[in-house]
Design a protein that fits this description.
- The complex is a heterodimer of chains A (448) and B (230).
- By secondary structure, chain A is mainly alpha-helical.
- Chain A has 13 helices and no strands.
- Chain B has 230 residues and is of the alpha/beta class.
- Chain B has a single domain, classed as P-loop containing nucleotide triphosphate hydrolases (Rossmann fold), CATH 3.40.50.300.
- In chain B, helix 5 links the parallel strand 5 and strand 6.
- The radius of gyration of chain B is 17 Å and the shape is globular.
- At the A-B interface, helix 6 and helix 7 of A face strand 2, strand 3, helix 2 and helix 3 of B.
- Chain A: Belongs to the Golgi pH regulator (TC 1.A.38) family.
């Protein structure tokens, strides 16, 4: 009986999330494009549906184990088999030449993917010889590696980018005069391009007309004459053409700079509003949190340690010991850690979706939108699986054992170490990158 | 070239519909070999003979400004694009015949360009919705061009062409449907070439021979009002 109740809860909640995912999909991603196929939608929905493992937190029954296992199997099936195959199929259909044997080439691409996927497991200490080839542990371990790398990269970048974006301390001062000056330069460049192109067009036209005249059979010498005159003309022309190319490159740069200035000006105005001030305040908190995380990651690597207790229980223990407040440690730690973990997951999902949406807009066009959606689904799926792996760290002991049961025997410590390493690398490189970008921009404007 | 001589025509449309290929075809009579994404704006020049074949024939340079981007861009990108909409004399709206959304987005594109260039006594649209009256009063000549005609199968062609005819009527503009990879569609003497030539003539006339253009414009308005009454 309770099994039925649990199943119905699962199904309803999955339908709910499916509704959200669908809304997001239709509203944000596909607003401007019409061409999509139903199969893609199906795949995307299935991925979102099956990724809702965290919901199992709310089920207090033994059927939880069954649901977890079921969800996991479905996700893996989709991630490793269906989505890559679809991606291969759509990439192939974009290339006009291979239209005939679409399916064949898609299968070839899929097999290549599987081969590299398998090879991925070799350099890492995750292969335990007691399990067979197609066991869940094998698949999860590989998916976990990719997902953890991705997560660490994104977290590293996000940890640095977040304070940079939120805090108005980093905002360059942009005045209207700057923007006007840059726009004037842009228009001047366009005018120069136009005048040069007019000269080329006139030269082409006169050559064309003269060429017609010379097409009359004036004989051998007429042909020689036309060759010599046009050679001088075309040399001049190619010089002008080169200048035009250089100017066009310049105009593109100026356009991008102007767009950048407009965006900065908008941000300045936004930061003066209440919302902006609130985010600025948050930015200070985040920067402290990020510095702490980077510090912890370094310590973990240097001192080769993996945390034994989760931070919430630790925090409560500290308060109990130092402040003498009487808590029922077990009871509170369980609930608080659930809530915290829920918040972390929700914010990280939101962050991921926002970043991916921006990326999607930047590189999308009506041709490749199918492939990009599928890539999105693939990335999200891997992200979810690996977040389950890593969440294990922040949970109290009893729940860790449950996850260990479901996911089988994996070397969890390895994943945490790997996460720390990649996180550190990513955070440091994004600091470097942002520093360079920040320094370069004011210098460009000084040169105006 | 002094600014007085300029005849500026914008080429607007969604990403990937073929504006750059079209502009290259119009200016060089050749097919563009390696189309790539347009960042910012790319300009090209076409030499046009106004009133070709008559004693009043005169040569003008028409600047075709191909502005890249999508209609749903961030506000900062839109305000950057707006710098190209100054003092325009004509608009070519390009849409992809295989993609209905690109045709629908043309309304938003035209509003974006026209709102920027509104004269002090001109019609202002405040909520961005399409208003047919505004296009009836609009004085900037428009031309609607549909691309990728070769990718429409024969069976669907009629349906697509009817839809685009309605679209052109909404804009009070002529329409041309072609394939940018085939210069045959704009061969001299074809109906498409004639429409194109008429459009450019209209643009030049409005710019330089205002009285002549105005009388013609008012006459066509009267004709249309009479039609609607019946």
């Amino acid at each position: 009986m309770s099994f039925l109740i649990d199943s119905s809860i699962m199904v309803t909640s999955q339908v709910l999330f499916f509704g959200f995912g669908w809304l997001f999909f239709m509203r944000k991603l596909f607003k401007d494009y019409e061409e999509y196929q139903d199969a893609i939608l199906q795949t995307y929905q299935d991925t979102i549906l099956s990724s809702l493992i965290p919901l199992a937190y709310f089920l207090h029954c033994s059927s939880r184990y069954f649901h977890w296992k079921l969800n996991l199997c479905v996700i893996l099936l989709i991630l490793v088999f269906m989505v890559p195959f679809y991606i291969g199929y759509f990439v192939v259909s974009n290339i006009r030449l291979l239209h005939r044997q679409k399916l064949l080439f898609a299968c070839v691409l899929w097999l290549t993917f599987m081969y590299f996927f398998w090879k991925l497991g070799d350099p890492f200490p995750i292969l335990s010889p007691k399990h067979g080839i197609l066991s869940i542990e094998q698949l999860i371990s590989r998916v976990g590696v990719i997902g953890v790398t991705l997560m660490a990269l994104l977290s590293g970048f996000g940890a640095v980018n977040c304070p940079y974006t939120y805090m108005s301390y980093f905002l360059r001062n942009v005045t209207d005069a700057d923007i006007l000056a840059l726009e004037r330069r842009l228009l001047q460049t366009m005018d120069m391009i136009i005048s040069k192109k007019k000269r080329i067009a006139v030269a082409h036209r006169t050559m064309f007309q003269r060429g017609e005249v010379h097409n009359k059979p004036t004989g051998f010498w007429g042909m020689i004459k036309s060759v010599t005159t046009s050679v001088a003309g075309s040399e001049n022309l190619s010089l002008i053409q080169q200048e035009v190319d250089a100017l066009e490159e310049l105009s593109r740069q100026l356009f991008l700079e102007t767009a950048d200035l407009h965006a900065t000006k908008e941000r300045i105005e936004y930061s003066k509003t209440f919302q902006g001030k609130y985010f600025n305040f948050l930015g200070y908190f985040f920067s402290i949190y990020c510095v702490w995380k980077i510090f912890m990651a370094t310590i973990n690597i240097v001192f080769d340690r993996v945390g034994k207790t989760d931070p919430v229980t630790r925090g409560i223990e500290i308060t109990v010991n130092y402040l003498g407040i009487q808590f029922d440690v077990k009871f509170w730690s369980q609930h608080i850690s659930f809530i915290l973990v829920g918040i972390i997951i929700v914010t990280s999902i939101r962050g991921l979706l926002i970043t991916l949406t921006k990326f999607f807009y930047a590189i999308s066009s009506s041709k490749s939108s199918n492939v990009i959606v599928l890539l999105l689904a693939q990335i999200m799926g891997m992200y979810f699986v690996s977040s389950v792996l890593l969440i294990r760290m922040s949970m109290p002991l009893e729940y860790r054992t449950i996850i260990t049961e479901v996911l089988g025997e994996l070397q969890f410590n390895f994943y945490h170490r790997w996460f720390d390493v990649i996180f550190l690398v990513s955070a440091l490189s994004s600091i470097l990158f942002l520093y360079l970008a920040h320094k370069q921009a004011p210098e460009k404007h000084m040169a105006l | 070239m002094a600014a007085l001589d300029r005849v500026k025509v914008l080429v607007l449309g969604d990403s990937g519909v073929g504006k750059s290929s079209l502009v290259h075809l119009l200016c060089h009579n050749q097919v563009l070999g390696n189309p790539s994404w347009t960042v910012g704006c790319s300009v090209d020049v076409r030499i046009h003979d106004y009133k070709e074949g008559t004693p009043e024939e005169k040569t003008y340079y028409i600047e075709l400004w191909d502005v890249g981007g999508s209609v749903g861009s961030a506000t900062s990108v839109k305000s950057t694009r707006a710098v190209f909409y100054n003092s325009l004399n004509g608009i070519i709206l390009v849409h992809d015949l295989t993609n209905k959304k690109s045709s629908q987005n043309l309304y938003r594109w035209s509003l974006e360009a026209l709102n920027r260039d509104v004269a002090p006594t001109g019609v202002l649209v405040t909520n961005g919705d399409y208003d047919r009256e505004q296009f009836a009063d609009n004085q900037i000549p428009l031309l609607v061009i549909g691309t990728k005609l070769d990718q429409i199968p024969e069976t669907k062609r009629n349906e697509v062409l009817t839809r685009t005819a309605f679209l052109a009527e909404d804009f009070n503009a002529e329409e041309i449907n072609l394939d940018c990879t085939n210069p045959r569609y704009l061969a001299a003497g074809s109906s498409n070439a004639v429409k194109l030539s008429r459009f450019f003539d209209k643009v030049i006339e409005k710019r330089y021979f205002f009285k002549r253009w105005q009388s013609r414009f008012l006459a066509s308005r009267k004709e249309r009002d009479l039609e609607e009454e019946h």
